[in-house]
Request: fold
Amino acid sequence: MPVCFKQQFLCCSKCPSQGFTLIEVLVTLLILSIGFLGIAGMQSLSLQQAHNTYFLTQADLLLRDMADRMRNNVEGANLGLYIHEGGVAGGDASACLGSAALCSVDQMAAADLAEWTDRLTNSDILPDGKATIASLDTPGGYLITISWRGKKSVHDIEHSSGDDECIFGEINQRSCLSLRVLIAS
Reply:
């Protein structure tokens, strides 16, 4: 068996190789870099999903807020004062504020819609937020729908029929959420 000496002037080709070759190091770096790219992609997807979940939560809170407002003003809801076709609702939201404020049913509904649509459209809660409130065939039934600029359509949370949900055009560019509300007479 040949003996290898670590001297500069001796070089034995039959000595066993010691250490890693350059190709082994490059292959290892390639495998590690592919793994790190996969981890970075998963992190990016996770952040995007968290952002979408935030918007979905905000839309759900806004839906339930309007449903509560309608339940607090049953007479106004039954008169159809909360039906909203989109855009910013007119009315003075400050007219019914304060403990001494006395509002009519019409004023309360107008103030509720004005404050609600203002929160929806003039804030950073939802990007390009839009909403409609439509009357259903069921007496006292309403469908509240909110849409925002997003990647995909989200099914409504209270029912599964797809014939009347999220009609805002450009469905592929908007996410939307609907809530069916039944107001007791």
About this structure: Residues 22-182 form one domain.
